[in-house]
Amino acid sequence: MAGLLDEIGGKLAERWVSLLALPGSLFLGTAWAAHVLGGGRPFDVGRLLREVERYADWTDVHGGAGLFLALVAALLLAVVPGLAVQALARAVQVLWLGPWPGGAGERLVRRRRARRARADAEVAAHLRNHERDGDEGELAAARAAEARRDRIAPLPPARPTRMGDRMHALEHRVGAYYAVPFTAVWPRLWLAATEADRGEIRTAAGAFEASTRLCGWGLLYTALACVTGWWPALVAGAVVVLAAWWLGRERLFALADLVDAVVDLRLRSVARAVGIPVPPGPVAPATWRELDLVLRRRR
């Protein structure tokens, strides 16, 4: 997944300054207020105004040159939290998608597998009751249990998080249905896709990456609260992290659906491009196995 986002999100990196400078300036202003106020009187506006007046007196003493240097220094400093957010965003991506290093991820996967197994057993029990008694209520209960099971994971969990399992389910579906590894066929699919396809995926991937950056800002504000004791930053950081997680999940699912669609719509074009005849209509599994052999020889 990281390779996929790196490939289709390359153009976003060219705009990182414009994306991070403004929120970086806002963070610097918040950090200054948190430093001045601390945890004692978090909303002491009068104290902030006195500090502003003190800085205004400093600029009066040093003139326009001092003000210019102060502005340049502020702009340069605004980039620093942006760089920190870039690093945090990569860590958030690993946290959301997995796999996690160490044993914590494996333990969470085992717990999620056990939860899904219990949900699957509930589905099977309702279906058995429906087959035995013909009770439509049992069929409705089975469908509701299926929905609860699929909210845990569409397949037996292989990642610590639901987002990670959604991408794993995508790779598993392509491998199981088409007998072609997703990682092998995706670069060819990207080239075979239309510009409209690539534009939709770039937009979806960019939205997901924006969610990881938003979570990074939330973590940065949380860290600011821990350092300065200014609790409003902790509240703001927690709200931002939760919002980023919710947005990231929805956007990741939308991205996975788009990639799924591109696989279904463009895989025939990849097969024809490498010299495998694909007739219209249903495709025999042997055709996809032949495509897999061709891709393996070219790796």
TrEMBL record:
Taxonomic placement: Bacteria, Bacillati, Actinomycetota, Actinomycetes, Kitasatosporales
Keyword Membrane tagged: yes
Regions that span the bilayer: 67-89, 219-247
Origin superkingdom: Bacteria
Keyword Membrane among UniProt keywords: yes
Provenance organism: Actinacidiphila glaucinigra
Protein name according to UniProt: Vegetative cell wall protein gp1
Keyword annotations from UniProtKB, A to Z: Membrane, Transmembrane, Transmembrane helix
